[in-house]
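Below is a filled-in request sheet from our internal design queue. Each sheet records the structural input a requester submitted and the sequence that came back. We keep these sheets so that new team members can see what a complete request looks like end to end.

REQUESTER: design group, bay 2
PRIORITY: normal
MODE: inverse folding
CHAIN LENGTH: 309
BACKBONE (tokenized):
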């Protein structure tokens, strides 16, 4: 992947600006780095996994097992030993090293072509990997190992901004690229330019909402509420408990916090459901078909569309 990106950069001769996305397939299962990178990693020196808290979310854990047993992966993690976790972590670390090398090659090529100092570079990922944290593997839930991932931006001429711990979401990369290119961000888009970059329209998010096939999450400051379709719910204070070992969902001292976050999460989910159906609305009360009976008869979209033989 990195070699193909470098080849494109060397062959690009147009004077117009270019946009290039390099989507490395790793680090990801089946955790298969080149042997030369794996040989440099000692599994015994890998940091240990964050322990599972028995009783917190056993159904979520079982869903994780069942999902990985499926034919796409075919691995049974029912017995997930520490040695197995350390081995996977070593393979994952080696994959990161390999990608780090390839990114370095891309940066070197940009410099060789004389465009590095006039290029915005964004390093991002759509998710992390538990690698044994909470006795889980992969992604699909809302513990930090899956959702808290690096995001780095290199501005033209190597301008330095610093490090921010503010909440951002991957979708904000879209608005960042548009704003940097001088293009207006569409008003309907749930994306704002990343803060601290000096781009028009940038701001700080007060909360984030996440959704996967099996649940929803609200991230507000250092508090996180996760609710799953299994009926399990988790509330964590990440400032005091970064490893998410103390579920406060039933703690009387935090009952009001839970109620407020739960109400906000419900509101966000309902608004998202309404917006997802806006494409089905007819905004004009006048006939769109020319049929004078349209308004009197009403209008109904055939949804889903009928199958045609």
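RETURNED SEQUENCE:
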């Amino acid at each position: 992947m990195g070699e193909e990106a470098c080849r494109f950069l060397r062959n690009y001769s147009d004077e117009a600006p270019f946009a290039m996305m390099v989507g490395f397939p790793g680090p990801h299962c089946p955790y298969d780095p080149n042997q030369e990178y794996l040989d440099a990693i000692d599994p015994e020196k890998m940091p240990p996994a964050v322990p599972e808290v028995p009783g917190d979310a056993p159904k979520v854990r079982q869903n994780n097992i069942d999902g990985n047993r499926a034919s796409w992966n075919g691995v049974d993690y029912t017995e997930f030993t520490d040695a197995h976790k350390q081995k996977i972590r070593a393979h994952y670390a080696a994959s990161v090293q390999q990608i780090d090398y390839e990114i370095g090659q891309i940066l070197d090529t940009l410099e060789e072509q004389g465009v590095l100092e006039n290029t915005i570079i964004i390093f991002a990922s759509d998710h992390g990997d538990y690698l044994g944290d909470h006795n889980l593997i992969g992604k699909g839930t809302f513990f930090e190992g899956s959702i808290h991932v690096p995001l780095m931006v290199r501005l033209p001429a190597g301008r330095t901004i610093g490090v921010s711990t503010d909440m951002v979401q991957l979708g904000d990369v879209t608005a960042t690229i548009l704003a940097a290119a001088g293009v207006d961000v569409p008003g309907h888009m749930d994306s704002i330019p990343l803060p601290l970059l000096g781009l028009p329209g940038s701001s700080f998010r007060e909360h984030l909402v996440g959704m996967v096939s099996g649940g929803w999450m609200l991230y507000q400051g250092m508090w996180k509420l996760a609710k799953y379709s299994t009926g399990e719910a988790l509330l964590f204070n990440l400032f005091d408990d970064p490893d998410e070992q103390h579920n406060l969902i039933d703690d009387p001292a935090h009952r009001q916090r839970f109620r407020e976050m739960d109400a906000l999460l419900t509101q966000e989910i309902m608004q998202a459901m309404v917006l997802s159906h806006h494409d089905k609305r007819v905004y004009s009360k006048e006939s769109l078909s020319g049929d004078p009976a349209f308004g009197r008869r009403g209008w109904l979209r055939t949804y889903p569309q009928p199958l045609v033989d």
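SHEET NOTES:
- The radius of gyration is 24 Å.
- Confidence is low (pLDDT under 50) at residues 296-300.
FILED BY: M.R.
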